Amino acid sequence: MSKQDLSLQKSIPMIAAKRKAASQRRYGAHAQQKVGDAMHEMKLGVLKSGRSNKKVSSRKQAIAIGLSEARKEGAKVPTRRKAASKRKATAGPRKAASKRQTTAGPRKAAHKRKATAGTRKAASKRKVASKRKARKLR
Fold it and tell me: What radius of gyration do the chain's Cα atoms show?
């Protein structure tokens, strides 16, 4: 067999594999075009979100808008994922919730705030001071 015959034999299965892969694609060509258009609009600063009509600056948001438009036009796009936060109705209350104290007061808001370098430093100083105090009491 010549080199040309061998290359022809190798290319036939490759063509079949490419056809199969094309039929199994999750997103169609129209969806890809819509996402590309949305990305282009975002980069130009023209793309706006639905309800609030604010300018979109997030890449992920632009992709989501493009896929949503493609879905509306009937392109081949997988269905949207459901929210992961939904729990089973049979799940009982968590143990941590029963141990929680009822008097939260101002500390509740404080634990939600992000700790800055200054507050971490102050907290570590308080911790060290309380340890020294405990040693003196012994």
Answer: 29
Indicate whether this model's pTM tops 0.90: no
Task: Give CA angle at 51 (50, 57), nearest 5°.
Answer: 55
In whole angstroms, what is the distance from residue 55 CA to residue 72 CA?
21
Question: What amino acid is encoded at 88 in this protein?
Answer: K
Do residues 39 and 62 lie in contact, with contact meaning Cβ atoms separated by under 8 Å?
yes
36 and 45 in contact (C-beta within 8 Å)? no
Query: Do 65 and 38 touch, CB atoms closer than 8 A?
Result: yes
Token pair, residue 27, equals: 């997103």
Q: Strand, coil or helix: what is 103?
A: coil
* Per-residue model confidence as pLDDT tens digits over 59-85: 999 999 999 999 999 988 888 877 666
The helix or strand, by DSSP H or E, that contains position 89, with its residue range, turns out to be none
- 3-state percent helix, strand, coil for the chain, nearest multiple of 5: 60, 0, 35
Q: Measuring CA to CA, which residue among 59, 53, 21 is closest to residue 41?
A: 59
Q: Dump pLDDT digits (tens) for 100-132.
A: 555 555 555 555 666 677 777 888 888 888 888
